[in-house]
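Example 4.3 (complexes with small molecules)
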Amino acid sequence: MTGGRRPSFGRAGTLAESFRYAWAGFRWIWATEANMRLHFAAATLLFTAAWWLGAASWQWAVLILAAGMVILLEWLNTAIEGAVDLATEEFRPLAGRVKDVAAGAVLAAALLATLTGVVVLGEGLLQLPGLFLAHAREAPWRLWPLLPALYFAVSSLGVRRATRDEPVPRPPARDRRRAAARRPAR
Ligand SMILES: Nc1ncnc2c1ncn2[C@@H]1O[C@H](COP(=O)(O)OP(=O)(O)OP(=O)(O)O)[C@@H](O)[C@H]1O
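Answer. The structure with adenosine-5'-triphosphate bound is encoded below.
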């Protein structure tokens, strides 16, 4: 960037570009939001429990929806926090309340997902410690999902908090050229 000019940006023109920007957004959250990794750790544990207990298709569907809702709301919460910070850097009660409401939605979704897991897997949850020991003895390969879950949880400790004024990565040169070509001449 030179002379204070903003980097070129514009509407994503193709589906591939839209995916690339969405993926860049996810990577940014992944790099800066510890909570996102904790949600992934929890979802991995939930799905591992479903796998060990031989959950039926409908149970999988409900669990995937419940865990997905938490992750998507964390995603939106991060977007809302960023938008609020863009709108004001001063202490504004409404700004604080908007952030609290968005964070509350994530918390509510996480509690509902936990409740959903308990209701859907039911008494099977009590078998999990026994299944863990049995798998460790007889089929250790069934324990492998615990490794990514552990990685998500431990790596969340090292995630630096999002700095709101952190520069957004520049779009690839090809996208910048396309965006510039689409902008109407003044
Ligand atoms: N501009 C502001 N004016 C008033 N209160 C604010 C403002 N910004 C943040 N707050 C308060 O501080 C709390 C923490 O804000 P922050 O931006 O650090 O979000 P956070 O909840 O820590 O986000 P994260 O999900 O990244 O952990 C908010 O929930 C809100 O109550």
